[in-house]
């Protein structure tokens, strides 16, 4: 329909063949997509102008790509002729008729800097934010002007969205988690009357230009506000100085005069860029006006101490390399102080961008940065409409915008390139395969420390930003890494969702897919297999009907207790047991369900675990240092779903279900995981379990790996029944018929 409209309206000016190449513009930009640990965020884009007003209109699609504006010859001559900005403005004002076209050019550049820019890319009307336009058109980096890249478009549109956002979710649960209303595609929002974000975290890959982009925004905000102060901090003072000189001062020196307010001192400031001298003229929003004092704004840098800007009022704060802070400096502690510099009363006036590749988790500040990102869940708000940190988080995979994999139109070549793309980039593979090949080189060489560093520097998933160095767990790292790489881009991955009561509480349980759900499920059961249970008259309790099929494990946590920066999560897992036939495995053990979630209601967690067990009809082998699961199951009539250890040597059954996490149990879990990885990993599809196996160093770290612990208890739960499987198989048909007759309907 759009093509017919264009042809009808413009065919007298543009050939119909060209108009037929034109496409519809995007209505939305989505970020944080295709990542199991992130929930996608939708950003509404501006409506486009009429097509003939969009730059590039009339050109064939293949000729539509970014072209930076060129400074008019007269303005170049003006900059060479005069030394001061005032002299240049005086010359223009005295000769407006001579500089008529140049004045239009200046106003146009200011317009796009403030309002954004529409242009055609390969037939598609494309919007970029004003910060992005200013960056591509005028902000010289170390190799000249930046090329247009779709990755940068995401960064700047997201940055502006977070900077301007005043809305929060209309519907949330009692813990602040967003709930959708009538619109299934997106959430209903309400206005709070003020900005709700201080800024955002940006964990990213190496040398992707984040520092230049952040300083470009820093400069724009400070030079379009009177009396504004911008600050820079990094992992140490030397790095902050480098950021100031290389990424701010150097591009500033190359700006045309109409984007430079009058400044104090030389063109090579060492510690601060001050816009506070007495002046006569300065540029604001494309116009000229008299000023006696100038902007009275400035940008400087400080050392890495959290208190460096304590008590100051900041309109912008660039927190550079926050994931690499060392020597006892925490990015979280620094943020708690800096965010108070960005507010006046309840009004947020400033903006912070926290850019970083991530240092080693234990020694390089990675753990604190991960905590900061976890506290920045866009979909979990306080009553004031803010996240717990006041920040959001943006993650863009390393294969987007990777140098050497950008086509003629600025689009990322992620997968196998087209013929045209292959000719342009000089490669026949995409960025994703290129990065996987690099990883394979480390894997084949057995260099797992090098592999960990490579993944952290070029993450393709959010969790990879916080990849730990190789640990001495004793696990077969080659098998773990190989299987994780196979699963990372597999389409046969678990489905995310929730287990819910179908009609009434303690009745039938159903699994409902939900992209924000708490469970990851790789095997769903049919109607005749799910919810199998029977009532035991002797013990007067419900018993699991699929006990010979699988077992669950759980690792409850002590509510209100944290470990360092990390808040513990309740975790659970269900494993399908091995099947024995002729003394050989005919089906290996495999996890079919995982759960790892932080909730502030212990009964909600316990109920999640009960529903999981009821759906699969399997017994639970829980950790009972915290007796939450034990108590909840028994109180609600499901004590028969608790699994007790059986000692084949003594024939004794334990008096308590599950186990306490003693040093022996920890070692037993590690031993069983070692066997699982060595013999059964090839069928495993739950990458979240394998990643925790890879990252843990030993039993002493189990308190940091909740899902590993819960899955370990499930593994232990399979052992106590191994010797009984053959006997159970002989009776399985009769038991199955019995369960079907007596299961809950």
List keywords for this structure.
single chain, 745 residues, alpha+beta, seven-stranded mixed beta sheet, 21 helices, disordered C terminus
- Number of contiguous helices: 21
pLDDT averaged residue by residue: 88
Give a quick account of the main beta sheet: strands, pairing sense, barrel closure: 7 strands, mixed
Radius of gyration: 30 Å
Distance between the termini: 53 Å
Low-confidence stretches: 279-291, 560-566, 721-745
The number of strands is 32
Share of β-strand residues: 15-25%
Structural class: alpha+beta
**Helix content percent band:** 25-40%
**Quaternary arrangement of the chains shown?**
single chain
Widest β-sheet, arrangement of strands: 9-12-8-13-16-7-17
| Shape category | elongated
Task: Please summarize what this structure is.
The protein is an alpha+beta fold. Helix content is 33%, strand content 18%. Mean pLDDT is 88; it is low at 279-291, 560-566 and 721-745.
What does the model show?
By secondary structure, this protein is an alpha+beta fold. 33% of the residues lie in helices and 18% in strands. The strands form eleven sheets. Strands 9-12-8-13-16-7-17 form a seven-stranded mixed β-sheet. The chain has a seven-stranded mixed β-sheet with strand order 19-18-20-29-26-23-30. Helix 8 (210-222) crosses helix 9. The longest helix is centred in the C-terminal third of the chain and has 18 residues, at 725-742. The radius of gyration is 30 Å and the shape is elongated. The two termini are 53 Å apart.
């Amino acid at each position: 329909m759009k093509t017919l409209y264009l042809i009808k309206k413009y065919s007298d000016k543009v050939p119909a063949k060209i108009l037929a190449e034109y496409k519809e513009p995007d209505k939305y930009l989505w970020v944080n997509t295709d990542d199991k640990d992130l929930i996608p965020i939708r950003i509404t884009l501006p409506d486009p102008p009429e097509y003939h007003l969009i730059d590039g209109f009339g050109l064939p699609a293949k000729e539509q790509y970014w072209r930076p504006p060129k400074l008019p010859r007269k303005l170049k001559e003006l900059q060479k002729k005069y030394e001061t900005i005032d002299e240049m403005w005086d010359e223009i004002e005295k000769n407006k008729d001579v500089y008529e076209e140049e004045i239009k050019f200046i106003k146009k550049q200011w317009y796009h800097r403030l309002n954004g820019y529409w242009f055609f890319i390969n037939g598609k009307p494309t919007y970029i934010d004003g910060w992005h336009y200013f960056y591509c058109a005028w902000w010289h980096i170390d190799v000249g002007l930046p090329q247009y890249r779709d990755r940068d478009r995401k960064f700047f549109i997201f940055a502006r969205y977070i900077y301007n956002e005043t809305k929060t979710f209309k519907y949330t649960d009692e813990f602040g988690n967003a709930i959708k209303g009538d619109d299934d595609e997106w959430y209903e929002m309400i206005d709070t009357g003020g900005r709700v974000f201080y800024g955002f975290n940006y964990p990213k890959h190496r040398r992707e230009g984040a520092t230049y982009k952040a300083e470009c925004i820093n400069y724009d905000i400070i030079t379009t506000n009177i009396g504004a102060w911008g600050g820079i901090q990094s992992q140490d003072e030397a790095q902050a100085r480098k950021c100031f000189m290389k990424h701010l001062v150097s591009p500033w020196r190359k700006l045309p005069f109409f984007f430079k307010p009058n400044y104090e001192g030389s063109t090579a400031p060492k510690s601060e860029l001050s816009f506070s001298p007495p002046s006569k003229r300065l540029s604001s929003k494309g116009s000229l006006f008299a000023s006696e004092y100038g902007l009275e704004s400035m940008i400087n840098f400080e050392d890495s101490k959290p208190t460096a800007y304590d008590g100051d009022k900041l309109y912008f704060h660039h927190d550079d390399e926050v994931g690499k802070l060392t020597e006892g400096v925490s990015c979280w502690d620094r943020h708690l102080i800096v965010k108070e510099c960005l507010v006046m009363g309840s009004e947020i006036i400033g903006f912070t961008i926290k850019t970083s590749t991530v240092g080693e988790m234990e020694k390089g500040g990675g753990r604190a940065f991960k905590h900061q990102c976890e506290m920045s869940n866009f979909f979990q708000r306080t009553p004031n409409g803010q996240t717990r940190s006041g920040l959001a988080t943006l993650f863009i995979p390393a294969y987007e915008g990777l140098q050497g994999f950008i086509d003629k139109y600025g689009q990322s070549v992620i997968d196998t390139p087209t013929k045209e793309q292959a000719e342009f980039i000089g490669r026949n593979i995409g960025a994703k395969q290129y990065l996987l090949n690099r990883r394979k080189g480390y894997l084949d060489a057995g260099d797992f420390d090098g592999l960990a560093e490579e993944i952290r520097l070029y993450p393709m998933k959010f969790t990879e930003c916080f990849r730990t160095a190789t640990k001495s767990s004793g696990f077969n790292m080659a098998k773990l890494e190989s299987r994780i790489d196979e699963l990372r881009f597999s389409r046969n991955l678990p489905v995310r969702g929730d287990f819910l009561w179908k009609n009434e509480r303690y009745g039938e349980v159903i699994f409902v897919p939900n992209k924000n759900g708490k469970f990851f499920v790789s095997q769903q059961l049919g109607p005749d297999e799910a919810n199998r249970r029977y009532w035991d008259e002797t013990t007067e309790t419900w018993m699991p009907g699929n006990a010979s099929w699988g077992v669950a494990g759980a690792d409850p946590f002590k509510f209100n207790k944290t470990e360092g920066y990390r808040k513990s999560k309740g975790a659970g897992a269900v494993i399908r047991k091995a099947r024995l036939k002729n003394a050989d495995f005919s089906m290996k053990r495999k996890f079919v369900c995982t759960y790892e979630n932080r909730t502030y209601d212990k009964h909600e967690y316990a109920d999640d675990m009960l529903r999981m067990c009821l759906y699969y009809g399997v017994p639970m082998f829980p950790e009972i240092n915290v007796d939450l699961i034990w108590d909840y199951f028994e109180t609600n009539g499901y004590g028969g779903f608790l699994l007790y250890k059986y000692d084949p040597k003594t024939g004794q059954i334990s008096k308590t279900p599950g186990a306490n996490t003693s040093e022996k149990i920890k070692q037993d879990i590690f031993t069983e995981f070692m066997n699982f990885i060595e013999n059964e990993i090839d069928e495993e599809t739950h990458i979240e379990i394998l990643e925790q196996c890879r990252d843990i160093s030993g039993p002493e770290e189990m308190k940091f790996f909740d899902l590993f612990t819960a899955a370990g208890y499930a593994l232990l739960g399979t052992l106590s029944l191994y010797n009984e499987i053959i006997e159970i198989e002989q009776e399985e048909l009769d038991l199955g018929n019995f369960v079907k007759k007596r299961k809950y309907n």
